[in-house]
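Recall that a protein's primary structure is simply its ordered list of amino acids. Everything else, from secondary elements to tertiary packing, is in principle encoded there. The following example makes that idea concrete.
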Amino acid sequence: MGKRRYDDGCGVAHALDLVGERWALLIVRDLLLGPKRFTDLQAGLPGAGPNVLSQRLRDLQHIGVVRRRTLPPPAGSQVYELTDWGAELEPIVTAMGFWGARSPVVPRTGEVRADSTMLLLRSHFRPQPARTWTASYEFRLGRDIFAVRVVDGRLAELSRGQAYDRPDAVVETDSMTLGALLGGQQRVAAAVTTGKLRLTGDPASVRRLFDACTAAVRPAATTAPGTGTG
């Protein structure tokens, strides 16, 4: 494929030979929640020119991380999706996200997009044994729509696209507000009051969902004020 290789037998080096090229792991990140058309990938990765994006997709197909298929009628469009082996990169991508977000030196810049924020929701979700519930949600982040389903207090589905059935609640917001809600910097009631969050349906089920996500960043009861990670 014309790439420089590490020539190192370590599994880490081999993994970087496969997915270490610029934009490769971000393509994987943007396919973790379901297939995308080339134009959708390009919209989510505006810094990657079409030629570079095409080359990375070819590379990822060649090594078996990504495949291309044609959607059935009436859509009929071609999409890219992760193979089963490619989907195994999710915990690695998630761990890198947590690691990068805690950078003590280099500040983060640029826009956080819808896919990244919804992956944050999935990684933050913690089952609540004492408060089990079943509900379906539709998240609308601008032009991006995601279906979320909780069954018996566990996250059963988070995928790109509209909810199949009529959802119990529809959540309309933007990526920045949703990130603040998931990180515990914003309260649901305050976001609703300011108009940054619009809820349709059952508000109690939405609060349960956010409670299950913010539990991951909430400081322990014994933590001194101001020393928590949230």
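The two ends are 43 Å apart (CA to CA). The CA atoms of residues 95 and 123 lie 9 Å apart.
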